[in-house]
Amino acid sequence: MELSGEWRLQHYEVGQVPPLQLADAGLDDRFWITAAVPGDVHSTLMERKLIEHPYYGHNDIKCRWIEEKEWWYRTKFQLDEAPSQEERLELVFEGLDTFATIYVNGLEIGQSANMHRSYVYDVTRIVHRGKNTVAVKFDPLFLHNRDKAQMQWSSYTKERPWIRKAAMNFGWDWGPRMVTTGIWGKVHLKRSKLARLDSVYARTETADKDMATVRASIEAKCFNRSVEMTYRASLVDALGGTAAEAAGKLARSRAEVSLNIDRPKLWWTHDLGQPYLYELEVILYADGQETDRYRKPFGIRTIELMLQDEHGRHAFAFRLNGVRLFAKGSNWIPVDNFIGSAPDKRYTDLIELAVESNMNMLRIWAGGIYEKSFFYDECDRLGVLVWQDFAFANALFPDYNADFMDNVRQEAICNIKRLRNHASLALWCGNNEIDWLYDMKSSDGDITCPFYGESIYHQLLPEVLEQYDDSRPYWPSSPYGGNDANDPEVGDRHNWQVWHGSVYPRKFGDPTMLDYSVEGVTFKNYKKDDTLFSSEFGMHASANRYTLEKYVPDEEFYWGSVEMAYRNKDTNHQKGILLMEGFTGIPSDIEEYMRFSMLTQAEGLKYGIEHYRRNKARTSGSLIWQHGDSWPGTSWSLIDYELLPKASFYYARKFYHPLHLSLDHDPREPLKLWIVNDRLQAYSGKVTLQVYDFEGKLVRTLETAAEVGANTAVKLGEWEELDILGGLSPERALVRLSAPGWDCEDNYYYLRDPKELDLPQAQLTASVDAELGVVTVRTIGAVARLVTIDIPQGNVRMSDNFFELLPGEPKSITLRQADGQALMLDRIRIGALNAASTTPLFHR
């Protein structure tokens, strides 16, 4: 029974009222406000109009008082029958944020000290027939860290290392400080008779096209030792047929089961096949009576992390069902600062957008949470692999404290057991950037103490995983490996030369250096990176107009305003200026800022990822920082807070396409034509390279015979820039790559940076078919650069946006609003870098 009915919420000063008085079953709480559970205090106060929206303007500062108070939740539930002697009633909290004391019928039953784990309390002897009361008291955090020793290093704030809570709540370089509290997970009452299942752990031991073996470990909790416990385990296919079945007895409350499946349907990422899911069912019987049942989707697949290739060289590559994978994806932060109140639909939208942009992997970053179970369910369903960090980010942690370490151990066990049956889960990773940054900060003298926390990632977590999940690889940190924790020759790498200006190469013990110059931060540095796996890299871009206008006061909506600066939480705002200065030029107003920053991010990511993909014989993955936003700011995200994709998202659809044409070119250098094929089939045909001038005249056509094997990259040809242009100025040239007859996106290249181009003014015309939700765009007189469709509405999906358009080649774009709302088609504006905005003709 889920306790999701009416909950009440109230706050007090610390110690203002004795706890037992507020926990008393007979307390009159009619005058408390109602609250949703799961949820959080901030969202409840917003909904009741007691605080202004914290994301608007500087309102987050006005909400700081919330973290200083003591908060109480109360609810009641009805029991028609009291538990019998053969039964147990357990109260389960899936998420408490963070220091909570729980009372049932006025009695204290336990305390929590970790946002990242669930808590189960036996309340059999406390509840009774009729009405029962649950009360939960949340302490302000300062009560639990004010007397703790501060670590020498903890990014953004030194108060968080002792507190097992989402690190980003304290602020990060892409989001504000928003210290939440409340019941963020579901609460339910579980009634069990005689016995219940304690855990089911299923993993694929072997799998090929002929046979698969799935091993299941079953553990039960028995309330009467004289009872005989038996089980039945089965895998059921989508049509309801039983693919494999086994039955037997539990010995000492445990059983090991092998299920053999003939001609199994394997789980694949969506780009390589079907993410097929069986249903795994385990039924527990006590003296022949069914007492508990587990039934969840289960994908049959094998996953490995290759650290050496077939020639014995260093590698870092995932192998799914025996196939070496190029991981294409992004880094996932919490979908909202108000984690408990974020709806499931927001998760579905963001994961669907990952699939739409041809991603096959998401990395759950360590500074957030172990995501809600719904996230992994959706990744299983949609065919997206998950790299899972443990929740340790950018700080030293007190591993010398026994209580802290026990808390961490229970956190790890809880989440490993919760997530280990998911086919999508590919890797456990110990932390984010701690090993790497510890060395850098020690080398610079900022840290002089031992590596506090090291035993967590290099001892505790591997030990716990060996016991609870031996079916997938573990990696101690990200980045990690080699003569530098960020070594391109060994392990995975975070490339923060681009944007942050980090100077590479660097070895252990070397002092760190930053180069804040156009040359130091430019995305052209990606070409110097021969990493084995790039697990974090990126650059800022503005949010879309609608998102900014919704949260920025009108009088502050201009380039250079204090409010616009407040949207950017990065440590040095100069980086974005330097990137644009070197590529587009520095913007002069808000319009140019939105366009220039988006274009720089999109073209920069294209430049780097195409380099990584061409190098796929060595490089096996690229995970962009970052996928979405937790609030409406300026950040590295591909998708802004209102679920509106930026230009980089639409570029990603093309540069992450499984079959991709690319041009390796820098000014005055040869043009090298490549094709990358991530699919498991070979292709042969013809690839066309066309050169246009900016008036749309076709200047040159080259047609090349092309053959590319399965899962490989091939260089098709190379031409000198002067020969290709045939007298056309490179500042007035546009190159188009296409492969007629292949499922392959056209790809466009300008041969000089935007600030150097001699782009004439174009004139856009457009029409809207309201019935079909289709916008058709044309350009007259010149190529239109970065055609942008703006609509003042959130969560709008478009078949394309931020694209190039040639005269005489109209382009039709399909739009839909992903929440099912009517599209505001009559308010669409369409513009380009070299074309004034226009309103399309409207046809019903």
TrEMBL record:
Its main location: secreted. Its EC number is 3.2.1.25. Residues 759-831 form the Beta-mannosidase Ig-fold domain. Residues 29-184 form the Beta-mannosidase-like galactose-binding domain. It catalyses: Hydrolysis of terminal, non-reducing beta-D-mannose residues in beta-D-mannosides. It is an enzyme of class 3 (hydrolase). The keyword Secreted applies. InterPro entries: Beta-gal/glucu_dom_sf (IPR036156), Beta-mannosidase-like_N2 (IPR054593), Beta-mannosidase_GH2 (IPR050887), Beta-mannosidase_Ig (IPR041625), Galactose-bd-like_sf (IPR008979), GH (IPR017853), Ig-like_fold (IPR013783), Ig-like_GH2 (IPR006102). Keywords: Glycoprotein, Glycosidase, Hydrolase, Secreted. Pathway: Glycan metabolism; N-glycan degradation. It is found in: Secreted. Residues 196-301 form the Glycoside hydrolase family 2 immunoglobulin-like beta-sandwich domain. Residues 670-755 form the Mannosidase Ig/CBM-like domain. Homodimer. Belongs to the glycosyl hydrolase 2 family. Beta-mannosidase B subfamily. This is Beta-mannosidase B. It comes from Paenibacillus xanthanilyticus. The lineage of its organism: Bacteria, Bacillati, Bacillota, Bacilli, Bacillales.
